[in-house]
Design brief:
Elements: E1 3-9, E2 15-22, H1 49-52, E3 81-85, E4 90-93, E5 99-103, E6 117-121, E7 125-126, E8 129-134, E9 137-142, E10 151-156, E11 172-178, E12 189-193, E13 198-201, E14 207-211, E15 225-230, E16 234-235, E17 238-243, E18 246-251, E19 260-265, E20 281-287, E21 330-334, E22 339-342, E23 348-352, E24 366-369, E25 378-383, E26 386-391, E27 400-405, E28 421-427, E29 438-442, E30 447-450, E31 456-460, E32 474-478, E33 482-483, E34 486-491, E35 494-499, E36 508-513, E37 529-535, E38 546-550, E39 555-558, E40 564-568, E41 582-585, E42 594-599, E43 602-607, E44 616-621, E45 637-643, E46 658-662, E47 665-668, E48 673-675, E49 677-680, E50 688-689, E51 694-695, E52 702-704, E53 707-713, H2 720-740, E54 746-747, E55 758-759, E56 762-766, E57 770-772, E58 776-779, E59 786-790, E60 794-796, E61 802-805, E62 813-817, E63 821-823, E64 828-835, E65 839-841, E66 846-853, E67 856-859, E68 863-865
Parallel strand pairs: 4-11, 13-20, 22-28, 30-37, 39-45, 46-49, 46-66, 47-50, 47-67, 48-53, 48-68, 49-53, 54-56, 55-58, 56-59, 57-60, 58-61, 59-62, 60-63, 62-64, 63-65, 64-66, 65-67, 66-68
Antiparallel strand pairs: 1-2, 3-5, 5-9, 6-7, 6-10, 8-9, 10-11, 12-14, 14-18, 15-16, 15-19, 17-18, 19-20, 21-23, 23-26, 24-27, 25-26, 27-28, 29-31, 31-35, 32-33, 32-36, 34-35, 36-37, 38-40, 40-43, 41-44, 42-43, 44-45, 51-52, 52-53
Length: about 850
């Protein structure tokens, strides 16, 4: 072992002398032996020096994130606690387990002790225990079992410091509650990359494995995670990192091309209750002939192999593997961008397009801020391809928050996100207390003739906490309740159980998703979900097909806000439907950023921003998309479409529930004919006159012979007041949206006189009144959009018409009007009127659209027909 003494200054107040720097890979001997090789971080081997001084046994192979304290620069950034287990407010904790906290960087081990990491029972009464520290993980081991059904508080004090002497800025506390049981269940693996049996694996990059639960970091190291070259048992030198419930093995050198390797997790790996693996978990893969950093595996991951056995045969067939230099992307987020009324007690979750380096995903790279860029404290976890941010406390109600994933996150080949990804959402006032459900199971309950090589999946009613979906909570059993070995993955709202080997033919199996699965607000299933199916005699070897796409191939006048969907002829493996396999490109094959989701048999690509107008786009689903039996598409599915000429539609939200909506009142003298609901807010029902309304027995709405629909007002019985407040608020949002659209296609057209003209789709702007003295025609397709921004009023002469032609629809015509609207007698109007002031219709005038006003709406024997959505 090479040991160097080095003296250096890390900041103005702290001087480290005689710090031992272990050359390159911690304490690794020059001969680079196998399983006893200690850990070094994948990003900076020098930074692994500090844990070598930790007296904790097993510290030679531990998770070590980077620390800027040894970089030669002054490190003044305080560390944070990026992950805890148990998580805050977690219930049902076994009484015989340890408590762990993971930091955002390497810490000073002398600052982590029983005085800085404490656990207390009610009183508070201190819990006796011992604190150990390995890499970036501190572990509190109680001296004896915790009390049953008791709430405990764990605390990291501000005396915990990183290697540069920076203390955590705020005390970190979290609570958890025990149940009456001890944890005696052996841990298992949920996902491995490369997958068992994978071929053409690139020769560079990390190996990754996700455990079914959080493990004891002292037991996850190069003694328990071993990679061997086959044939034979020669260990491969490398380092092991462990974050959350994910372990990564980073070979010191590139693997040999066209060679079989066997990876093993031994029974020395234990969970936080001390339960070891029931047997060694072993899986094999074969490399291709590339020296580059690879993509990991074919087949999109999967479970480890069975216990004990060695690897397969010799080298592969010489297939060249393209080095993985593609940056990962975000395939989905929850909440989605710009969504409103988000529950205040939920977590944030993002799904990546591929397996990531777990050590790169922490509270530094996944963050949340509120108004004024105020950071929201929380913890970050990562499982499979999903990262989750758990706020320490409920979010503030009715508040906008901004989430960010930085380009510090990396895939297993070391590729970072191309750029920071940021999205916003706004909370409502409610918490989520509704139990999730399993909406769809595949195979269906009581299905027969199921292929013996099929995977089993369950689709939830909402996004779930990925950490709670594992082989402990999703199980498959055969006759006699014999467990089936397999791996569990979770993407989007879908959990998939992939058996390690083919199921037995003509056999009844039982699948169970138990109440251990939780949604992002911590709500469990109300009851276990159990279903059965019977296999047939043969495997499924038939490639899946894309039966339909939307937009259709060669589609024209597609909305610039359209989603892109592909419907398959059978259930697909959701892990294989990501932004890597479902893409959208514009002119010059420029990728369109977006997210991918999969529900039922339908994959959806949602662009992050509005598409360009009148532009040709190409959608592609690659042969990387596979069904549940692992069969890929025979060939890429490609289709093209052209967007519409006009801008994106204005989102009315709940204001679209009304044909007539006003803040000041609605009058109808004499009677009118209205198709659709009408309503007023914040005023009461007396502001609606001339309708001879009749109150419904529920007192939540009224009816009238003039209205084919309902009449609502802010002073009716709940939930109507909330409904009306929301609708008026949504109208204001829509008005602001329409008024804020920039770069008009036409400005001051006809100096405000549009009568006699034919208007193509687009954004129009006037600083004056707009006059319709003769008929005006709007000509365009069924998806084309018109937005009229009018600083003055609109005056339409009697008997004149707004005419739609070419398939144009009233629902796609938006009139944003700051002044009054006056529609003459017997005139006809088309579109959605959003008026800042008053709307007046002359006798017998009609409109195919909506009347939405900030003040009064006055009708005189008019016909108002709301368009279909």
């Amino acid at each position: 072992m090479k040991v160097f003494a080095r003296k250096f200054r890390v900041n103005k107040t702290s001087l480290f002398s005689m710090v031992l720097l272990i050359s390159t890979v911690g304490c690794q001997p020059t001969s680079t032996s196998g399983p006893n090789v200690p850990t070094a971080p994948t990003s900076s081997p020098v930074h692994s020096a500090a844990p070598a001084a930790t007296p904790t046994p097993g510290a030679s192979a531990t998770p070590v994130p980077t620390s800027s304290g040894l970089s030669g620069q002054n490190d003044t950034t305080p560390p944070t606690v990026s992950f805890t287990s148990p998580i805050n407010a977690e219930l049902g904790i076994a009484v015989n387990r340890k408590i762990v906290a993971t930091f955002s960087e390497v810490m000073d081990p002398t600052s982590l002790s029983e005085s800085t990491f404490t656990v207390t029972a009610p009183g508070p009464v201190a819990v006796a225990g011992k604190v150990t520290y390995i890499g970036s993980v501190a572990t509190f081991t109680p001296t004896s079992n915790l009390a049953v059904s008791t709430s405990y508080t764990a605390t990291i004090s501000t005396k915990a410091k990183d290697l540069a002497g920076n203390a955590i800025a705020l005390k970190k506390s979290w609570v958890f509650t025990t149940d009456a049981s001890s944890d005696t269940t052996a841990p298992s693996e949920s996902y491995s990359n490369p997958a068992n049996g994978a071929t053409n694996v690139a020769t560079s990059g990390n190996l990754g494995l996700t455990f079914s639960e959080v493990m004891d970091p002292a037991t996850v190291n190069t003694d328990t995670f071993i990679l061997r070259e086959q044939p034979g048992s020669k260990p491969v030198a490398g380092t092991v990192t462990y974050i959350g419930n994910i372990v990564s093995f980073n070979p010191k050198e590139s693997l040999k091309p066209n060679t079989s390797y066997t990876a093993t997790i031994t029974t020395g790996a234990k969970d936080l209750a001390g339960n070891p693996f029931a047997a060694d978990k072993t899986w094999t893969f074969i490399t291709g002939s590339s020296d580059g950093a690879g993509s990991g595996s074919t087949g999109g991951g999967g479970g480890g192999g069975g216990g004990g056995g060695g690897g397969g045969g010799g080298g592969g067939g010489g297939t060249v593997v393209t080095p993985d230099t593609s940056p990962p992307t975000l395939s989905a987020s929850n909440p989605v961008n710009a969504v409103l009324n988000v529950f205040t007690n939920g977590k944030l979750a993002v799904t990546f397009s591929e397996v990531m380096d777990a050590s790169s995903i922490n509270s530094t790279t996944f963050s949340l801020v509120g108004p004024g860029q105020t950071p929201v404290p929380g913890t970050v976890t990562y499982a499979g391809t999903t990262a989750t941010f758990t706020p320490n406390a409920n979010l503030a109600a009715n508040t906008q928050f901004t989430a960010t994933i930085t380009n510090g996150v990396k895939d297993l080949a070391g590729n970072a996100l191309a750029a920071n990804q940021t999205w916003t959402f706004t909370t409502g006032s409610a918490t989520d207390t509704t139990a999730p459900t399993v909406n769809l199971s595949t195979p269906a309950n009581a299905a027969i003739g199921v292929a013996v090589n099929a995977a089993v999946s369950s689709t939830f009613s909402e996004a779930m906490n990925a950490l709670t979906i594992s082989t402990n909570s999703f199980q498959l059993t055969g006759p006699g309740a014999t467990p089936v070995s397999g791996a569990v993955t979770y993407v989007g709202n879908i959990a998939t159980f992939t058996p390690t080997s083919n199921l037995a033919a003509n056999t009844l199996y039982t699948a169970t998703v138990n109440m251990g699965v939780l949604d992002l607000a911590g709500n469990p299933l109300a009851a276990n979900k159990v279903w059965t199916f019977t296999t047939g005699a043969a495997p499924d070897t038939t490639a899946p097909l894309v039966n339909a796409s939307n937009p259709a191939n060669l589609g024209a006048s597609v909305l610039t806000t359209s989603l892109n969907t592909a419907t398959f002829n059978e259930p697909m493996n959701p892990l294989t439907l990501t932004t890597a396999t479902f893409t959208l490109t514009g002119p010059g094959q420029v990728p369109v950023p977006g997210t991918v989701s999969y529900i039922g048999n339908v994959a959806t690509f949602t662009p992050t921003t509005e598409l360009a107008r009148k532009t040709l786009y190409t959608a592609t689903i690659t042969t990387g998309a596979q069904d549940l039996a692992g069969n890929p598409l025979v060939a890429n599915k490609v289709w093209t479409f052209t967007t519409a000429l006009g801008p994106a539609a204005v989102n009315l939200r709940t204001a679209a529930d009304f044909a007539v909506l006003s803040k000041s009142g609605i009058s109808s003298v004499p009677g009118s004919v209205i198709t659709g609901d009408i309503g007023v807010s914040p005023i009461g029902l007396t502001a609606i006159t001339g309708f001879s309304e009749v109150m419904d027995a529920s007192t939540t709405f009224a009816t009238s012979t003039q209205v084919t629909g309902r009449i609502y007002a802010a002073n009716l019985t709940a939930p109507t007041p909330t409904k009306m407040t929301t609708a008026i608020g949504d109208l204001a949002t829509a008005y602001t949206d329409a008024a804020g659209r920039a770069i008009p296609d036409f400005s001051e057209l006809g100096t405000g006189q549009i009568g006699g003209q034919t208007l193509v789709p687009g954004l129009y702007k006037w600083g004056t009144n707009v006059l319709v003295s003769t008929d005006v025609t709007l000509n365009g397709g069924p998806n084309d959009i018109w937005i009229f921004q009018i600083s003055g009023g609109v005056i339409q002469a009697s008997d004149k018409r707004v005419i739609l032609s070419g398939g144009a629809q009233a629902k796609n015509v938006f009139w944003q009007i700051a002044g009054d609207v006056s529609i003459g007698a017997r005139a006809h109007f088309e579109g959605i009127i959003m008026c800042e002031t008053e709307i007046n219709l002359g006798s017998d005038a009609s409109i195919n659209g909506r009347l939405l006003a900030n003040t009064a709406i006055n009708l005189i024997k008019n016909t108002v027909t709301q368009p279909a959505l």
